[in-house]
Design brief:
This protein is 18% helix and 40% strand. The chain is an alpha+beta fold. The strands form three sheets. The protein has a five-stranded mixed β-sheet with strand order 4-1-8-5-10, sandwiched between helices. Strands 3-2-9 form a three-stranded antiparallel β-sheet, with no helix packed on it. It is globular.
């Protein structure tokens, strides 16, 4: 199942958007599932608006990886393909937890991000390299 990570930076590339998940309290970039028939860039922009109330533009694909398999409480198993897109905020906006998926949404300096897992830290590092090509996991 395909999902997106929207790594949103401000226009100056000095701040990143992060949300605090309501299920486990972790800080992450905005993430979500691509709806059937939806383009990945549109999904990233939609998820950012839904989860953090921020308008943004998808700039480019920066990372592609298969995530570990997960098993849900009801026994369903899934494995997600994550497409990480670098997005740029459309002007100065203050984020807020726009839906029930998150308890907070805020800007962080790119060189002082919130505590994040290795995947998201690596994706932020890729975004800051500002290379034109996407990375693929080996």
């Amino acid at each position: 199942m395909p999902g997106v990570t929207a790594l949103v930076l401000d226009r100056e590339r000095t701040r990143m958007l992060a949300v605090r998940r309501s299920d486990d309290g972790s800080w992450t970039p905005v993430t979500g599932i691509i709806d059937p028939g939806e383009e990945p860039a549109h999904a990233a922009v939609r998820e950012v608006a839904e989860e953090a109330g921020i308008r943004c533009t998808a700039v480019r694909l920066i990372d592609v990886r298969a995530l570990p398999e997960v098993t849900y409480d009801n026994g369903d198993r899934a494995q997600y393909l994550d497409l990480c897109l670098l997005c740029e905020a459309d002007g100065a906006q203050e984020p807020w937890p726009a839906d029930g998926e998150n308890t907070a949404a805020q800007w962080f300096p790119v060189h002082e991000p919130p505590p994040m897992n290795d995947r998201f830290a690596a994706q932020l590092a890729l975004a800051l390299e500002d290379r034109p090509e996407a990375r693929f996991r080996r």
